[in-house]
Each structure stands twice: as C-alpha cells, then as structure tokens.
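Tip: read the tokens left to right.
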C-alpha cells in the first residue's frame, strides 16, 4: 500500500533540549542537574517496573556538543524520522532557557535534519505552587528554599515590543532551509492555547504581519488541541498520550482516582498502552477537522521525575508500537494529513523516547522505518 496523498506524510519526533548544564538547571534542581540525573537514579516501584532506563552504550550525551546533535539527526533520518520538534522555552527577552541545542543546530548547517520550534508557553513553578498553568519539572529534585517563591521562571507575554523581540529571535530559524513550513509559512506550535488566549491571539495576528513583512505568507501556528475546544490557531494537533490517556477518564474513573489519591498519598497512576492507542486510532478515524494533525507516542513513565506521584503506561512494546503507528499512518494518508507528531525523540525522564536503550535497543526506531517502508514513504 502506498500513501496516496498530495504531500507525503512526515513523521516528526518532539525533542527535549534539556540535556546540558545551565545555571537555571543547577539553581532549581541541584548543581549540574540535567534529566540524566533523574534517569540514572530511578528505581523500580512495582513488580516488573522497567526502571532505570539505560541508553544503549551508556550514551548519556551532552547537548552542548554539536556532534551529539549530528549523531541524533543521522540516526533519526536512517530510521525514517522526518524532523524534530524542538521544545522552546521563551519566558521574556531576558530569559530564553534550554536554547543552546537549537542554536547549535542553526549554526551547524551540516546537521541534516528538518525541524521546527514548539513553544511550551508556561511558567516553571514549584511543585506546591497554586499557579494554574505551569511546569513543575522534577519534583523529586526540587531544592528547598526559604524565599517562599512559587515561580522558578515566569512567563511574561508583554505587548508588541516584547512580541517583536521574540519574533526576530525566531526569524533566523524561520529562514533556515531546514525549518519546516506549510505553504511558505514556518510552523510554530503553541502548547498551551488556554494560557491567556486573548493575548496569544493578538500576538499571533502581529506575528503574521511581521512574517509577511519578512517574505513569508504568515506563520503556520499549530495549537495543542484541548478538551475545552479552545482553538484559535490555523492548525491544531493532538498531544499523546495526554489527549487519549489520562484526559479520557470518565467521571467515575476520575472520582475513583481522586478518592484513591486522597487516601494513599503518592499513588502511581497506571494506564493501558493498548487502550490509549485504541482511543488514538478511534478518534482519528472519526475526525472531521481537516487542519487537525494526529499525535502518537512511544511509551510513558515519569516516575524518574515524580516517583510515586508519577504516571506509568503499562504494556508498551516495539511490536505494538509498529502496529498502532501503521494504523495511524493509514488514517493520516486517507485523510490527506501531512504530519504525525510523536512523543518523543528523547524524553527519557518521561519514558517516551525513540533513542535506543539496552532493553529494546533499536526496536522502536525499526518500527518507524517498517511503517514507512510498508507505506512506501521512505526517502
């Protein structure tokens, strides 16, 4: 079976740029912290719990070294990954965190991989904070302080002058030949559409104006689809396993979980790999939105960061992943979708990674390549 579409389907892997030491990592979670610290120290918390996850060859790489990014790009292309979606952590003009890997990619034109930026537009908060939309990255490693601050890094949208600064930082990326575009519009995804949507809508309109001034037809904004149907971007995508996993619990399941968590503090939430993927396929088949792209995932286990307060998806394997990804690719081809977004290339602290480990080795990467060869999508 070939993929009979006007544009060939592309599989994009989301990419975490966290694996390098920064002053903020050290300040927030301990001297020299990267996610590798949590991954290395993780322990099994129940029978047959696959922890710790160990990279093949003990390859705990450092993303401040461009050669490691080049290795990732070569590996990704070899197994059929068409590009990376780099998470982007812009808080204001003076605080743009974890940007070094993407800036190294921009600088080193010999790194042959397509890419785009995905803005995780939320403050970084402390675990106990009441901030509604924020990331509490690594609760197990959060440093105790006496300052009482709830915010580690605060997102400040500002107004036109701040939006202009942000846009012109991004413009060099947008102009790169490797940057992924739709109809002369550079892709830029927004992960939290409900984080002050009025301001975000105004910012998107302004960026479209600036993009047109700089030779583009606008910006192809892709918003993460929310259950509350907030969606003002031209395109949207499903972020898995969140959409078809824990947000799909019915009212009885949610009540049971709430009671369980109130009685047993530190209760690991477990989810079925098969059930989540069945929901993904079912939702895709019945979708009628032409500008909605689908997401898939490899596996999930954030206990390295959260311990007994974590979420674990049970039952993942390369064979299952290959079967489900193939079904999702077929649906995407039939509906003439251009992209599938996978979580993730290297989210080791959340157990969501395509990179080889000592247990499955290249199994998940081979699964991607097998799907694309079967659909005649390999370049």
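Filled-in amino acids:
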């Amino acid at each position: 079976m070939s993929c009979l579409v006007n544009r060939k389907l592309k599989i994009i892997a989301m990419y975490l740029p966290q694996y390098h030491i920064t002053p903020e990592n050290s300040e927030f979670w301990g001297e020299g912290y990267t996610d590798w610290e949590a991954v290395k120290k993780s322990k099994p918390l129940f029978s047959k719990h696959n922890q710790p996850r160990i990279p093949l060859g003990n390859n705990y790489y450092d993303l401040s070294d461009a050669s490691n990014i080049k290795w990732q790009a070569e590996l990704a292309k070899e197994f059929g990954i068409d590009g990376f979606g780099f998470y982007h952590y812009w808080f204001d003009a003076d605080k743009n965190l974890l940007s070094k890997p993407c800036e190294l990619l921009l600088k080193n034109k010999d790194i042959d991989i397509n890419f785009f930026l995905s803005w995780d537009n939320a403050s970084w908060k402390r675990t106990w904070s009441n901030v509604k939309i924020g990331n509490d990255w690594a609760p197990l490693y959060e440093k105790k302080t006496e300052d009482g601050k709830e915010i580690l890094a605060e997102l400040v949208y500002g107004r036109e002058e701040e939006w202009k600064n942000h846009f012109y930082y991004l413009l060099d990326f947008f102009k790169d030949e490797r940057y992924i575009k739709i109809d002369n519009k550079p892709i830029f995804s927004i992960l939290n559409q409900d984080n002050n949507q009025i301001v975000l809508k105004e910012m998107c309109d302004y960026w479209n104006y600036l993009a047109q001034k700089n030779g583009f037809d606008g910006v192809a904004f892709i918003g993460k689809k929310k259950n509350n149907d907030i969606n003002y971007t031209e395109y949207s995508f499903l972020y898995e396993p969140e959409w078809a996993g824990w947000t799909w619990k019915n009212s009885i399941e949610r009540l049971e979980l709430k009671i369980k968590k109130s009685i047993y503090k530190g209760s690991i939430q477990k989810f079925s790999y098969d059930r989540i993927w069945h929901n993904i396929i079912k939702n895709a088949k019945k979708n009628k939105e032409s500008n909605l792209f689908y997401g898939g995932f490899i596996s999930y286990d954030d206990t390295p960061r959260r311990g007994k307060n974590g979420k674990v998806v049970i039952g993942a394997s390369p064979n299952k992943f290959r079967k489900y990804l193939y079904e999702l690719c077929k649906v995407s081809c039939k509906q003439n979708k251009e992209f599938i977004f996978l979580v993730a290339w290297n989210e080791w602290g959340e157990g969501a990674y395509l990179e080889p480990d000592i247990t499955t080795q290249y199994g998940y990467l081979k699964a991607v390549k097998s799907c694309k060869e079967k659909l005649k999508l390999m370049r």
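The first strand starts at residue 10 and ends at 15. The chain is about 35% helix and 20% strand.
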